[in-house]
Each structure stands twice: as C-alpha cells, then as structure tokens.
Design a protein that fits this description.
With 366 residues, the protein is α/β, with parallel strands linked by helices. Helices cover 33% and strands 14% of the residues. Helix 5 packs across helix 6. The longest helix is centred in the last third of the chain and has 14 residues.
C-alpha cells in the first residue's frame, strides 16, 4: 500500500501509551522509530535499528539497515500505507504528535514528511543572519526548504528550476529570488553574478535522480540510465557542489541511486561540509508545530498549489469527499531494538495507538 504522509484522530490506545489519548488529533512522521535503540537516543530517527522487520534486505545496499517507513516497499519494511480505512501506528509515544487546535488539517498533513525534510535540509546548513542560500528545485519539498531557510535567518534565498509555474510559487510563497536554468547561459555564472563572485554560503540539492538538464553531459546520463549503467542523474548535485562558495555547506535531500561522476574532488578542494540523510522527522516535529501554530510556517499555502499545478490533488479530493477524514487504526508496536518481528504485521507488547479523522497525500521531492 502507498501513503506515508498522514494525520489522524486517536480512537484507541494500548495501556502503555502515555503521550496521546483517545480523541487527540495527531500527525505521524513517515519514518517509524522505536525510541529505544542507540540511533533514536541520538535523535537519528530515520536510522532506527528497531523498526525494519527484514534488515537483511537493506544491509547489502547500505552495510547496515535503516528504519521502516509507512507505505514503502519490502526494502523499507513493507509497513502498510495510509491510503486505507485504518492505519497501524507502531510506537505511538514516539511517533504520534498532538496537533494544536489552531493548526489546520491541511497544514498539519505536510508536517508528516515534506515539511520536516525541507526544514532539516535548511537546519543542516547552520544558517546565520545574512547568509545566502541557493536551492535546486521548486517542487513541494524545495519550496518548504526555501521557507525554512528564511525562518532560520537567511537574508537571501535563490531558487533554481526550469518550470515557470514552480518558479512563480517560489517567488510568491517563499519570497525567493529565482533562476530559470533554461534562460541563463549557466547557473554557476548567474550565481556568481548575484553574489558578487563569492557564491552562496550554502547550497541545497532538493532534486534527486530525475533532474532535468541540457547539453552533452545530460545526454550522457540519459544513455547510461537507459542502459542500466546508473540509476540516477547527478546534474543538480554536481551543480550545487560547484556553485557553493569555498568553505560552504552542501545539504542533500534529493533521493539518488548509483550515480556517475560524483564531484568529490570539488568538495575536498573547496573545504566543503556535506550533510544528508533521509528524514529525522521526530527531531523537528515540536518545532514545526510551534511554527505552524504561530503562523510562521504554513506549508499548505504553497504545497497545495504545487499539487494542483502538478495534477496531484486526487488524493486530497478523495479525502474531502469523505468529509476530510480517513479512519486509521494502530496496532501494538514492534519490540525492542534487537527484537526482529517474523513478519511485517507482527504484534509486540510496546505502546501503540489507533486513530482516525485523518488525511494523506502523495509526496515528491524537488
């Protein structure tokens, strides 16, 4: 089943649950965290050791398994997704966050995955007042990166994309300066001109393996993809590394497979810091809810128009047709960090919750 971004209302809890109660409206991060393993204790929640039922599927690819995810494939745990009448919510005390009354469903919904992903990418940059941040990608997550960078004190945010409707949303909803990469001689030259020759203090690659491009290098990668010699086009990632100033930070949240010509020499020679991960949503949820309650962050204001522009509102319309509520149900949580369930839907004696009155939506980075 698909769906890893969702909110809901608690309708039943296990006796051990302490943080939420029946009737609470909650938002649930996409990665499932046990709260007990070393990684969760270090607030590296997407690296949790206790929530992937078949870690042997991840070890050949990564060396070590990572956390399970709602609504993903066997490689990510095969936990049921949120496009259903009832949703399992393992480890409810770790993974259910009560939504304040003043935060609308549409805003809370995006706090489950897309908003914390963008917020985390900006946080990785250590933004200081006066900094200039460049963001590759004006999709749903890219727009959230841009607003988050502003919240953290960036003086200028420069957005790079090629679709006029997305660039317009970056200007209108995130207050970003924009570069249309089809209308300039080169993005790097444009960034140098806009920053007095120094370059942005931080560059954030919010575009993944399907980045568009032009020229011989782009054609080269398309051919390699067609021949299954690589699984991702690294054009945006290379451009971000090249565009960042010396001693700057490269934050990567785009999803990549195996890519060719990764610019490691650029990163080393320019003394750059590189930060990347999937998403530690639990680490940022309290901050995001506080921003949303104060009106400082409203991802629905720009994420929903992006979904409309991309023709991806069918799921939201389905939610509205059901009075804006998808019923959701939780089960007992997975056991301790070392305990591996025999199957993805196994039941173990740790706190969990059942919830309804929710919504779910598709997610896209870029």
């Amino acid at each position: 089943m698909i769906g890893h971004e969702f909110i809901g209302e608690v309708v039943e809890i296990e006796p051990e649950v302490k943080r939420v109660k029946n009737g609470d409206r909650v938002v649930v991060p996409s990665f499932i965290s046990c709260g007990a393993c070393w990684y969760c204790q270090e607030k590296l929640f997407s690296l949790c050791d206790g929530t992937h039922p078949k870690p042997e599927l991840r070890e050949p690819l990564l060396g070590y398994p990572t956390a399970g995810i709602h609504g993903y494939t066997h490689a990510f745990g095969r936990d049921a997704g949120s496009h259903a009448a009832y949703i399992r919510v393992p480890h409810a005390d770790m993974d259910c966050f009560k939504v304040p009354d003043g935060v609308a469903d549409e805003t809370a919904l995006f706090l489950s995955d897309a908003a914390p992903t963008g917020y985390m990418a900006a946080d990785f940059c250590g933004i200081r007042p006066g900094d200039t941040v460049a963001v590759w990608g004006c999709g749903g997550v890219g727009l959230m990166v841009q607003q988050s960078a502003r919240l953290m004190g960036a003086e200028r945010v420069i957005a790079i994309d090629r679709f006029p409707e997305r660039l317009k949303m970056a200007r209108d909803h995130a207050g970003s300066e924009t570069i249309d990469d089809t209308q300039v001689h080169g993005v790097l030259e444009a960034l140098k001109e806009m920053t007095g020759g120094r370059g942005p203090d931080a560059c954030i690659a919010a575009v993944g393996m399907e980045a568009h491009g032009t020229g011989a290098q782009y054609a080269y990668h398309r051919v390699k993809q067609a021949l299954r010699l690589e699984t991702g086009r690294g054009r945006a990632l290379r451009e971000a590394a090249m565009g960042c100033r010396k001693g700057g930070t490269l934050s990567v949240l785009g999803a990549y497979g195996l890519i060719d010509k990764f610019p490691m020499s650029v990163i080393m020679s320019k003394d750059m810091t590189v930060r990347t991960t999937q998403q530690h949503g639990q680490a940022y949820m309290d901050r995001l809810l506080a921003h949303a309650e104060k009106g400082e962050l409203n991802p629905a204001s720009f994420a929903t128009p992006w979904l409309v522009a991309r023709g991806r509102t069918a799921g939201l319309r389905h939610v509205q047709a059901q009075d804006g509520r998808l019923r959701a149900r939780g089960v007992r949580a997975v056991g301790t960090a070392r305990r591996k369930p025999a199957r993805a839907d196994a039941v173990y004696p740790l706190p969990s919750a059942r919830f309804s009155r929710g919504a779910s939506c598709p997610s896209s980075r870029g």
